[in-house]
Amino acid sequence: MNIYDVIKNRRSHRLYKPDPVPRDILARVVEAALWAPSGTNQQPWDLTILTGQPRDEFVAIASASFADLEPRLRQLFDEERVGFVKQFFSNLGGAPVVVAVTVWKDPDPFAQEAHIQSGAALMQNLLLAAEAEGLGTCWMTGVKSREKELLAYLGLPDRHLLAITPVGYSAKTPPVVPRKDRPVRWQGF
Ligand SMILES: Cc1cc2nc3c(=O)[nH]c(=O)nc-3n(C[C@H](O)[C@H](O)[C@H](O)COP(=O)(O)O)c2cc1C
Fold first, then answer.
1. Could you tell me if residue 10 is left (phi over 0), alpha (psi between -120 and 50 degrees) or otherwise beta?
2. CB 141 near ligand 1, within 6 Å
């Protein structure tokens, strides 16, 4: 698949089939993720890929974040949409695999920002590689209110939780969320 097609076809998937994802496919996706650029090539990240019981235990902790998010969601969305998000958070759409991306913490704000940007590059690589493999994902930071508990579960209490994503075969084609008018300025052309 052409890279432009992969980029444009990637969507956030919030309902998954229970079918397991073969480990060799996941390994290819992870390998592609790890080829992301990073500030001063520090590669300041860790990926944790969870399935089976660890996935269920991790999701149980992540799901609790919905209660923290709910008041804000109620300001932004109607009842139906809030209900949809609640359903999604309850089991991450039933995805059989969850990937957690963590980055190093650094007291220097410039270094910290570079770590976060590096982690975001890795995350996007992961999402695009998954798309190329026919897998659905959904970048999620909504669970970060439970960051401490999630990091403790991962055994990485000193890291910064960048985001998590469910990974699996999609059970529902998501709508294409339109992009805003191009906020792009061309100068000197
Ligand atoms: C930094 C970041 C955080 C996000 N957090 C969540 C989240 O917590 N829950 C969720 O359902 N989607 C989350 N998303 C997905 C966005 O809602 C989604 O990317 C956006 O609506 C555009 O839709 P698309 O990905 O299908 O193109 C997040 C995306 C990004 C980049």
1. beta
2. yes
